[in-house]
DNA sequence: TGTTAGCACTCAAAAGAAGAGAGTGCTAAT
DNA sequence: ATTAGCACTCTCTTCTTTTGAGTGCTAACA
């Protein structure tokens, strides 16, 4: 077991297959290379390590990494964490805070990072207002708990009087204010439309637009950083792979899959590790992904992901993630 | 001259140094390779082509490309343009329209693209409203010509009465509505503050925030697409270069330089070509950049850039750009 | 005078050959 | 159980050879 750890540790650092002699010399096990070789043969039979070719050293298999990671996570559980503060500065806008977070993590870990904007489903509408901008254009402003602001411009067919507009505003506010985003569903909308009477057409348009505005963004707001870090790891940097990875980061569409998967699968710490093929993303067989679910205030959950080679420094990554999660929380409370 | 064109055309396609035999066989000039060789020697002396090594074919020098591009642009001037429509769909939000544009160009040209959000300096404020969201939080919504919407949340110290808020709104609207963004400068702000009387503190905060909101974004809103296209061109795809390029696209900071440069340097068509070292960007010695200045409505100017290898298909790129510019204009008018 | 055939020459890139060395598995001894 | 010793394997590096596309120059030709 110690030997497996030693092999993996060494491989994490160097990225080169590691031989029996190296282990024998650079650990405090005081075993000769021959002994190590015997053990290695066993470990290989058990499927934890493998040989790229007969006369090369060993590298960890996915199963080997898995064992190692599980072990480490268990240790972390007990460990009292103490870390130098990595600093997130206060930001008045959520998107900037998230961008900053992604970048910070990328710089500190040397891996590629992503962060999804928190889901707003459980959040309540705090403020809602329709204003006329042009004769037949309305501006709808919606503020959601956490000071997330959404706007839409609506084109309306008929010209609205000031009075009508006022009525509409009152109607909308009475019914929607304080309501959670997830509660704005079809029955509610239908009910509202009925109450609107002559203005039902407008109401219909408005509400649909509001629902749209909230949900549309919710799918896709993902910020990434440090994509070019992949070039630091030869095993990811060949054209084929690099191109695919860069594309995934640019498109971001696939990353939403990762977000969904992560949010679905709850565990105690909120941190999950996907090694190689375990990953929910395509073309990531040679990568590992560490994800964390962060929470801002009540129920605003989002996902942070760190993507690097399988031989990433899991220990450091997990520490960084935990640290950032704590800070995100702190910064948010200050706002 | 015909020979230079032939050499460049061939090199654009293949990316390989081109020899005399190739030219002699695959053009309708009906000249033997020996003749071509003589001409080539002359062209080399004039500095339009060069030899990677003695026993290789020739590749165009920057000067060669320049000559070729100038020639082509002059021809384009006269040419009646006729192109299949590349379709931009109507989008109610400007940012989505721009993202779509970038992506479309990237897919059609197979190069990396960027597009900057139009500058709003000459645009007028169309709508401005302060609302109370919490006891001591104000929401400022600003709509600018072209339906660009900005919001800021302001923390205020004292709690404002409804009446004060109303007054503030009136004051702000009377003075700022219809004003161009560039006109909101220090003297104006000072004048306003004076008029505000007891509320001068708030006014001060509000106006500063408004100015901030408008200008802050103005610097940096750049959308990119197709960064991974660079892997399609071996001369750009080695680790060093690729990493730098990808970084430039991700950071976007440097790209603002390009935008400024382009907007400053006016020419008739609005299209500019930077070859190799001519580029205003660092680390782009092996790239060419074609930029265009687009205009949405009155004075909302922005920049589109296409970045590829020096042997990019300038012809196709220019056509695509012109086409997209025309469509951007059309789509915008529809809005 | 412009064009072309012919030929010797150059040089990068591909192919082949040789050697080094890191690492292994197995056996026999401690 | 552990280890020293040894033959064996196979990649990687280095060096050499071969190949071939392309050149420049000269001499002949229209």
Give keywords:
5-stranded antiparallel β-sheet; alpha+beta; 11 helices; 335 residues; elongated; DNA-binding; 3-stranded antiparallel β-sheet; 47% helix; homodimer
Brief write-up:
In chain A, 47% of the residues lie in helices and 19% in strands. By secondary structure, chain A is an alpha+beta fold. A 5-stranded antiparallel β-sheet of chain A has the order 7-3-10-9-8, with helices on both faces.
Fold blueprint:
2 copies of one chain form a homodimer.
Chain A: H1 2-14, H2 20-25, H3 33-46, E1 49-50, E2 59-60, H4 62-78, H5 94-109, E3 112-116, E4 125-134, E5 137-144, E6 148-155, H6 162-176, H7 186-196, H8 200-220, E7 222-225, H9 239-251, H10 253-264, E8 271-275, E9 287-296, E10 300-309, H11 314-334
Antiparallel strand pairs in A: 1-2, 3-7, 3-10, 4-5, 5-6, 8-9, 9-10
Helix pairs in contact in A: 5-11, 7-8
The structure holds a DNA duplex (30 and 30 nucleotides).
Describe this entry's structure for a reader.
Two copies of one chain form a homodimer. By secondary structure, chain A is of the alpha+beta class. Chain A has helices spanning 2-14, 20-25, 33-46, 62-78, 94-109, 162-176, 186-196, 200-220, 239-251, 253-264, 314-334, and strands at residues 49-50, 59-60, 112-116, 125-134, 137-144, 148-155, 222-225, 271-275, 287-296, 300-309. In chain A, the strands form three sheets. A five-stranded antiparallel beta sheet of chain A has the order 7-3-10-9-8, sandwiched between helices. A three-stranded antiparallel beta sheet of chain A has the order 4-5-6, covered by helices on one side. In chain A, strand 5 (137-144) and strand 6 form a beta hairpin. In chain A, helix 5 (94-109) packs antiparallel against helix 11 (314-334) and helix 7 (186-196) runs antiparallel to helix 8. The longest helix of chain A has 21 residues, at 200-220. The first copy, chain A, is elongated, with a radius of gyration of 26 Å. The two termini of chain A are 48 Å apart. The model of chain A has no long low-confidence stretch (mean pLDDT 87). The interface between A and B is medium-sized, with 30 and 30 residues. Chain A binds a DNA duplex (30 and 30 nucleotides) through helix 3.
